[in-house]
Structures are given as structure tokens and as C-alpha cells.
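re: ur question from yesterday

yeah so i grabbed the chain u mentioned. its 452 aa long if i counted rite. heres the sequnce exactly as i have it in my notes:
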Amino acid sequence: MKTKILFLFIFFFSIFTLSCQSRQTVEAADWPQFRGPHASGISEGYSIPAEWNAKTSQNIKWKAAIPGLGFSSPIVWEDRIFVTTAVSGKENPELKVGLYGSIDPVDDQSVHQWKVFCLNKNTGKILWEQTAHTGVPKVKRHPKSTHANCTPAADGKYLAVFFGSEGLYCYDMDGKLIWKKDLGILDAGFFRVPEAQWEFASSPVIHEGTVIVQCDVQKNSFIAVYDLADGKEKWHEPRDEYPGWSTPAILKTAAGTQVIVNGFKHIGGYDFYSGKEIWKMSGGGDIPVPTPVIAHDLIYLNSAHGRMSPIYAVKTTAKGDITLKNDETSNEHIAWSIKRGGAYMHTPLIYGGYLHNLRGNGSLTCFDAKSGEKIYKESVGDMDSFSASGVAADGKLYFSSESGKVYVIKAGKEFKLLNTNDMDGICMATPAISKGVLYIRTEHYLYAVTGN
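ran it thru and got these C-alpha cells back, copy pasting raw so excuse formatting
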């Protein structure tokens, strides 16, 4: 009898182990949305290089030219990579990176083409391209922005592509258009200066056969869920919120599934199936950009614009209005927080038990993710500026600067810069990782970086 029980235990444990290994392999292979699996920014299971050079082609597997301007990130599904771009009618559309404070938009009223490209992951060859829309942009962009900021999302059957005011599109994996939807004018510019249009940047998220979009804009902000098969609306919830660029995240617990959103007036969680609000809070930077990240049974949120720049670690069991009082840094639903020091553009990178918070000037602070204890604060780069969010793999952190330097830092309690790699071009998009290969987008090219 004992032998039989032991056999059954070993059998089911083996099945469980294989299942876990299978999931890890899938997650290491696919990078299906902004910041990859679960928006974590992490891919494990493969060796990742720390040194390369785009100018000399050292450790560069291939590079592919991508026309137009697009700061959307590449995504990976099996052996395919998907990227989006917007091609201006002007030969050299204005682009200005670096640390500066101008809020004036680019005045480019030429006819643009909004395009989707599918490339072979192993060779960089373009397998197909589609022009989703042609016309004059309905909203102007910031000089640091493009008309293709939203990263696409895929589930192996469908590809969701969002171009803001130019529409939401659903393709099959071979480029056939399944449906498209006009969501109106989505102006996510500066709420204090409405004429300072900056374009739209919140990326779509696919979950259980649906696509979720968060549209915090000048007028009539909302969050909505659509059926991927036919585009039919499943639910739509208005939001009393200022414009922002944050992408929603999915939280799955034994209690249910939530859509988690960042915000200024309305940070919170919605029931995935009904849209019912589960919890909410207010406070933070007044133009939220970073995506919520879930780890260690906590929801991490940060923002930094205006007078506030907090980081919050919210418990996944949160319910009701959990807003902190003026003198509080924690309560029943918020494990810890800091009032100042959060990032404006960068989604936090939580890796190896630590939260890495990178700011636009290269200031990198490492916290204990569970307690909020500050571990170190260091400067990355010499007067460099950063917009892309960090990613991690193989015990290393990767931070791309706008000038085209990728800083590789050893993960752990002590700050150690392993290498600085030159991409020979502007880097604004967050990299993707798949099976030991880094896919890095510059202003004009998509690169595959590998040590193999």
C-alpha cells in the first residue's frame, strides 16, 4: 500500500514538474506583449550576452530596417516578431531626445501610413506587412514621441494592434485583418495645456480571448474589453481620469481575475469578467506612464510628474478605497510605499527579490521588493537620458538609454556595471527577449543580439 502511494506521489509530482517546466519554456520563448509574459520584463532559461556592438556587428545575429518612426516595442510569438510603425509623408520627421522640458508638439500634417510588420525571428526577414490606416494624424505628437507608440499583443491566434485615434485592429497571425474598431479621438496630451498634444501610448493586453484597452485621455476616459474573435464589446467602464500612457496588467488570484490600472485620480482594480470596481486609490504623478507589475503577492505602481513621485506596493487582496492618508506610508491594503523617488516613464523591474527603479536621468534605486528597504542608489550612464523600461534575464539587468547605449548590470544587492553596449542609434523602445536572444529596436532598425 505504501509503495502504491509513493508511486502515485512520484507520478503526480513528475506531471506537476513537467507542467511547470513547460510553462517556463513557453514563457522564455514568447514575449507576447509590452514587457513580455505578465508584463514582468523577465525571460529565464537561457544564457543572455552581456557584450555586443552594433557598429562592429559583434554578437549581432541580424538587423532589419524598419521604415518610419515607432517607439512601440517588438513582441515575439514562436518564430515570428511583430512591430508597428508610422511612416510620415516628410522625408526626415522631427525627433528630439535627451533631457529637456519643451511641451510643444510636432506640426506634421502630412499623410502618414500606419504599418504592421511580421519578421522571421531567426533571420530578420520580413514575412508580411500590412498598412492599417492611411491619412493625416488626428492627434499631434511630442518630439520624443511617435504615432506608433503602442506595443502590439499576440496569443498565437490573434494579433491586436492599437494606433490610438487611428483605431484598434485585430489580425490573424498571417496578417489577415479580422476586424477594426474606431474608438474616437484619443488625445493623451498634457491636461494642463490641452494644445500640447503628445499622442497616445497605452498598449493593448490580451487575456482569455479578449483584448483590454485603457484609454485615459482629455475627454471621456474609459477602460474596455473586446472579444478577439469579432471585436464585440464585453464591457466598458468610464474613468474620471487625466490623460496617461499606462498599460493595464492582469492579476490572477484564487479570489478571481482583475484588470489593474495605474492612474492619478483613479488607480485600481476591475473585475476582469464584469468590469466591476474592486478597489481604488488616488495619488501619484499626474501623468502616469508606468505599467503595474505583480510579484510577491503585491501590485507595484509608480509615477512621477508634478509634485508627487511615489512607489506603492499594494496587496493583491485589496478592496474598497485604499487611499493613504497624508501621514501614512502603509495601511491595511498597502504593504509599503515611498512618497518621492518614483519614475516618470519607466515601469519598475522586479527581479531576484529586488525592485529596480530607473528614472529618466539614469538614477537607479534598488529596493527590497517585499519590505521597501532601500538597498542602493547609483547613477547609470554619464548625463544619459532614459525612456525605455528595463528587462532582465540570466542574472542580468538591461537598461537602454535614448542615446543608444544599453547598460548591463549584475542583478543582486551590490551595484556592478558589467558592460555598456553601443546600438548605433536612438533607443526609446523596451527590448524583447526570446530563447537567449535580445531584440532591440532603434530609430531605424530592429536588432537580434545573441552570444551564440
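noticed a couple things. Residues 165 and 185 are 5 Å apart (CA to CA). also The helical segments are 2-29.
anyway ttyl
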